[in-house]
Each structure stands twice: as C-alpha cells, then as structure tokens.
Amino acid sequence: MPNITTCRGIEQKRADYAFECALEAKNSTDSPLQIGNDFYKSKNYKSYAKKIPMLVKSNGLGASFAFILSKKGKEKRENNQTFAPGTQRNPKNAYDLIYKQTSDWINSKYSFTGDFSEFIITRNSNEYRTITNEVIALFTWLRRFAEGLIEGEEEQED
Q1: I want to staple 73 with a disulfide (CB 3.0 to 4.6 A). Which of 44, 59, 81, 92 is the partner?
Q2: For position 75, what pLDDT does the model report?
Q3: What's the Cα-to-Cα distance from 78 to each of 42, 124, 125, 140, rounded to whole Å?
Q4: How many CB atoms lie within 10 A of CB 74?
Q5: Predicted TM-score (pTM) of this structure
Q6: What's the rounded Cα separation, in Å, for the pair 69 and 71?
Q7: What is the crossing angle of helices 125-149 and 2-27, to 10°?
C-alpha cells in the first residue's frame, strides 16, 4: 500500500502544479501578469502546451527546450526607447512562461543551479530519460488544464 500512496502523492503534486501553471497562463492571456520580477502575457499558451509533448517525443527534450529558448521574448523598441523582455511594456511570451514553469518544476525535484537547458544537456542517459518522462507527465496535466481553463481559439505563431 505505501507505493500506491506515494504514486498518488506524486501525481497529485504534478496535477496541482499544472493547475497553478494553467491558471497563471489564463490570468495573463489578456493583460500582463507579474510573476516574481517579470511580466508575462501568454497568448497561445494553450496551443504551445498541446504542441510541446509531441516536440519532446519527436526531437528529444534538449532540442525541444532549445527551440523554446529560441522563441523567448526579445527587446522591443518604441519611440527611441528600448524595453527589455519581462517589463510591463514588453512582457515575456507564452514560451517564456512555459520554460520558467517547467524549469521550476524540474528544479523542485532535482535542485539545480543555472539554466534549465544547460542542466538538461549535461545529464547522463538515465537522468535524461527520467527528466524527459517527468516533463511529459507534467505536460499531460498541463495540456488538460490549459484546454479546460483557457477559452478562445488556438492560434499558432510558428
């Protein structure tokens, strides 16, 4: 019986975290939401949450998160002023939010310092496979909650 309780506990924690993540995304679809020191506006979060597990299965975890990292918010110029990503005038995008949320979840399990992508690519084969399975399990919940909580048409930027 202890194994069933442990499995249920892990799955419940994963579901709780995914629900909070989808709720953050929902609350930042129309106007920027401050999380920590950064502002996020997560248009397209729902479609990205659906797309990422297939990216991971097709290309691997490292390549998928390298792609997500490449899509992060860029500096924005308006009226001769430059706004860094994460400010209220230039909030980070849905890929930034997904990267942060996934990184925070894996960090709660493996306690790493530094960048999430660097952590992924420096793991041995067994750890890499375990982390991949954990990310896919998280996105199973995240995709479901995003579909249930976030209304509106799905749009694809890329």
Answers
A1: 92
A2: 81
A3: 21, 45, 46, 39
A4: 10
A5: 0.88
A6: 5
A7: 60
CB-count burial class (<10 Å; 0-12, 13-18, 19+) for 103:
middle
CA 43 to chain centre: 13
3-state SS, residue 92? strand
User: Residue type for 39, please?
Assistant: F
Whether the per-residue pLDDT at 36 is higher than 60: the answer is yes
- Euclidean distance between CA atoms 46 and 149, whole angstroms: 9
Q: What is the pLDDT of residues 65-91, one digit of tens each?
A: 999 999 988 888 888 888 888 898 899
Q: Terminus-to-terminus CA distance in the chain, angstroms? A: 46
Which structure tokens are listed for 47?
């479609």
